[in-house]
Amino acid sequence: MLNSVAPEVKSPEGPHAEALLVWYDRHRRRLPWRALPGEKPDPYRVWLSEIMLQQTTVKTVGPYFQAFLARWPTVDAMAESDEEDILKAWAGLGYYSRARNLHACARFVSERLGGRFPDTVEGLRQLPGIGAYTAAAVAAIAFDRRAAVVDGNVERVVTRLEALETPLPQAKPRIAEIVDGMTPADRPGDFAQAMMDLGATICTPKRPACGLCPYLPFCRARREGTQETFPRKAPKAKRPLRRGAAFWIVRPDGWVLVRKRPDKGLLGGMTEIPSSVWSEDFDSSAAVNHAPLKAKWRKLPGEVGHGFTHFELAVSVYAADALLSTKAPPDCRWVRLDDLDGEALPTVMRKIVALVRGN
Ligand code: SF4
Prior knowledge:
Layout: H1 17-27, H2 43-53, H3 58-71, H4 75-80, H5 83-90, H6 97-112, H7 121-125, H8 132-143, H9 152-162, H10 172-182, H11 188-201, H12 220-224, E1 241-250, E2 255-260, E3 271-272, E4 298-299, E5 304-307, E6 312-321, E7 332-336, H13 347-358
Parallel strand pairs: 1-6
Antiparallel strand pairs: 2-3, 2-7, 4-6, 5-6
Residues 157, 160-161, 202-203, 208, 210, 213, 215-216, 219, 221-222, 227 line the site of iron/sulfur cluster.
Function: Adenine glycosylase active on G-A mispairs. MutY also corrects error-prone DNA synthesis past GO lesions which are due to the oxidatively damaged form of guanine: 7,8-dihydro-8-oxoguanine (8-oxo-dGTP).
Cofactor: [4Fe-4S] cluster
Pfam family, one: HHH
């Protein structure tokens, strides 16, 4: 697919959109949410994919996108669903506030806007869960509005084109300015997608295929042989380690206790194996004080590790047996073991279940 040499562009001024669009017309990626050439994009699909793609790879999103579309083919269908069902279908994608905002946004568009997404950046910014990036991306891709769309791929391309020494994230405003200057009035939606595709398939983090790049004649980093060193990044602060405990309790008929997390906060509204708070000074010797029920708790060998954006987590897992008559405490309920996979369990909870099953 990417085996031809890019057309040579003879402008001395800088990278022109035209060269990139010529390349895009030949090499664009086929993505499940993307309209085919000549097809009108569906704003619902574009919006859904952009929300899913935040902090998540194209490969991971693909099956989720297809499943969501099969179940909720329109924004009105999604608006009529329960938030709980959306959270269940979202489980595993991470950053769960996105799923709750997805539902809130679908309801807003369906109930207040007659099922039509606004077609401007400003209009889109008014919707729940839509920030500056998503508004620009949806406006450009779904409505062909001229907007500077900058994702991680585009940041890489631009910092290399300009050999930009300012590290990320400080370089973001300058990158947005550059992209704005590059974005054409004609076909801005295709331009935005072309920049993303260029970053994803040619201007890759390691070993970019500069020989195939339509911007080769204009790339400062390539000229200096430093392309792989961009973008510059400010050193990351080490993430703190928090600790906690999770409590696995099963009835003789095989039902297990789960709990709904509070709606606000980390993993809000998701289902959990009842857990303690997670803190840096967690007192492991008194972990069972956090158990949802009094029982003969035993600590299972091993520990579950999980990385969140701002901290690392290590969870010890305790197991116990309940009686058939044991009542579920407030916010908790019993779930059949076989039904656990269909619950809105975030990845860290799935890891806890896997540790229990491995013991
Ligand atoms: S020439 Fe190479 S480094 Fe420069 S934009 Fe193209 S692929 Fe990226």
